[in-house]
Amino acid sequence: MSDQVPLWAKSPSTKVVFSKEDLQGVGAEVRREFNTCREELKAAQEAWKEGGHQVITAADGGEPGGKVVAGSRVLKGDSAAEKFRITYEARQRVTNIANKEELQGHVLPGLLVFPGKHNRLSNVDENGKYKRTEKFEVKGVEVEHQAGEKCRGLAWAVELRKQFPKEFEEVEIMTQPSSNCDGVLLAWIVEEQCEEEICSLWIRDCFSAVFQEHIGYKEIILATVGAQRQAVQRQVDTDWIVGGSVRNGLIAFKASPEAGKLVPFLGESWAKARGLAQGSRRIPNSWLEPRFSWVKDGIPQPADFALSSSATQEKGSLVKKELAKSKKKAIKDKALLLALKEDEVEKKAAKAAEPVEDLQLPFKKGEELRVVKEEAGALQYGKEGSFADAQTDGKASIFTDYGVMSCHQQHLQLKDSSWKKAAVWKQFTQLGRLKKQEFLQLSGCMPALGVKAEAVVPEPPKMNMLEGGHIALSWHLLRWQFSGHEFLESCQLVDAECAYKIDKEERWKEEIQQLASNKVHIFVPVLGSPAHWALLVGHRSSPDAAWQFCYRDTLADEHADCKHKAAIAMQALTAASELPEVPARCNSCRQTASESGQLVLSYIEAELAELASEGPAARGWPGVLAQSWDKRLEALYKQLQLEVEKVHAEVAKAKEREKKLEEQQEQRRMKALEILAKAKDQNSKTAQAAKAAFEQNSQYFTHKDLSPDAREAVWKAKAALFRPWHFSSSPG
To answer: Do 454 and 574 have their domain in common?
Structure first.
């Protein structure tokens, strides 16, 4: 069993206040415990002062956590004051459930979750390296920790473990971005639990809290271990784990493997001797008894879901009776009024829960559906599940891998049998040198002599803003990812410079028309001023059919310049005489930073995935996909930068070999001239061999051997020959 305890990692207050409800109805022994707690805190404060430390109270410690608004009694919280979040998971174990021995309680090492990337200290050795390889997925992105790699996120924990080895044996350390137990940490916890107890049942609760920056990792861990040791000592003194588990209804039976039944144990002598009983002041036994009505003669009965419709009424009735008993003497009138209000709420809830007759079902039960509209939001978009039932508010209940989800019917689409599973993104290790050089050539980044290698490939985006070179490289990367599909031949990306200057010169309109000829899918990334990317997508059934456009802009308010340039691009593609109206944008995702370029790439990828028969919304929420593009571009930059350096070195070596060859030829030519000069008979064999050597070594020449006029003529001829490719080279 585990319970995530709220923990404020902060120096304690000089005063401790207990509410009247906490002290009402408790015995003298419990009151003495409260008084002892006060005395211990007071002694700790005095010892802290005597040690030369400054006491930071809850009132004066650190930065103010909120701002007071004039005329208001509400203190508005400041999220910036919540520097970190921390979670402590207290763990207990009850054994001997499935044998005849007495139940035994144990305090297990707790779990501390600090903020940081997903890591666990149990998989990090003394040198700060991962012990074994582990893979997991975070927001659709696969993360891998290779065995032997350095774990920088837990370097502080490795050092503290060396200083306090005994304390670290009594607590587990994990990190997570929001310091909560998510799916990754839960999988690790279950894995470690299975290593210790192969057959076990885990009962857990979830909670998290905030701690201030005044206390560091060491103080938090030592304080937690100290409190955990107190829990161990209390277990030895009072056996609170078994008593609390039985009292709160967590354990009511023991398993009898021989009889194959669940056997009550509260009537046994050992249970009576230890005073085990169900129910407490806060959770009466009358609340717990109905929970075990599903066990008949020790055999659990199948669930009867028909009882769910009356569960609200039965629970409300029980609550009303308990309220009437507890408040009959002191606040009889208020209790009666509250009961009447609860009756009214229960009637409304029962009426709303009544089945609706003749409800038209949009889908058949069990049919596979997918959320394809961005209006559904980031949590639902792209999710799949089977149709369960229709609701009265126009929504539908679907069973997904994450549980039951309620989604508006208009956001759902029946999953087509022809839809393929989303293709796995190819690793860059599969990108060969020829393909890398092809990327460089198509993007105009192939190195030449005299050009520094680091100045060729566009660097990874800074401040999240992409440039035209990033869009071009990403397009070639997408074509490689979707290689093998025939539809790629009918797809075309318009160069970013063309779309940016389309409103300045007429020739850019002609350029778009030429690019779109014989194409049925065209993507126009529009760069507006001030810097922002939007996307215009055009589809048509054949090269002779009319274009159907879709416009996407991720700003909260549409970018005026992007929309104007998109209209000019539509005019060029449709050959319209007047400027057409840009269609309403078809996306609901909005950017949170300067990530418009990454979102444009995400939408292009989603369009290509749909053309590859993956269906709509196959690649998930665009905002999450945009984060992947930052990592992809950084990895691609490293790959291409290495290739540029290799090509640059190869070109330099080739130039060096050419230079050596020229020197050798010059030496042979001069030697042949010397032989010819010394030869008395020019027709002799020696003279003829010298002439042949001279001619053979004189046939290689460079542009330096030409006159300035000849060089000018060659450059003009080259410009005329390659004019369609828009070369802008100049002689020299």
So the answer is: yes
6-34 residue pLDDT tens: 454 554 444 555 555 555 555 666 666 66
Query: Taking the complete model, does pTM exceed 0.85, yes or no?
Result: no
Q: Which residues contact 206 (CB under 8 A, 6 or more apart)?
A: 4, 180, 181
Peptide bond connecting 64 to the previous residue in cis, omega within 30 degrees of 0:
no
Assess whether 433 and 572 both reside in one domain.
Answer: yes
Taking each helix axis from N to C terminus, what angle separates 433-442 and 622-678, rounded to the nearest 10 degrees? 90
Structural domain boundaries enclosing 442: 428-641
Angle 237-238-239 from CA coordinates, rounded to 5°: 110
Q: What long-range pairs does 649-657 form, CB within 8 A, spacing at least 24?
A: 651/447, 651/448, 651/449, 652/449, 655/449
Tell whether 315 and 232 lie within a shared domain.
no
- Average pLDDT over the chain reads 78
Say if residue 476 is in the same domain as residue 617: yes
Task: Give the contacts of 12 (CB within 8 A, at least 6 positions apart).
Answer: 41, 44, 45
Same domain, yes or no: 25 and 158: yes
Asked if pLDDT for residue 591 goes beyond 70, the answer is yes
The type of residue at 75 is L
Q: How many domains does the structure of the chain reveal?
A: 4
Where is the domain boundary, 606, 641, 676?
641
- Tens digit of each residue's pLDDT (9 = 90 or more) over 101-125: 888 888 888 888 888 899 999 999 9
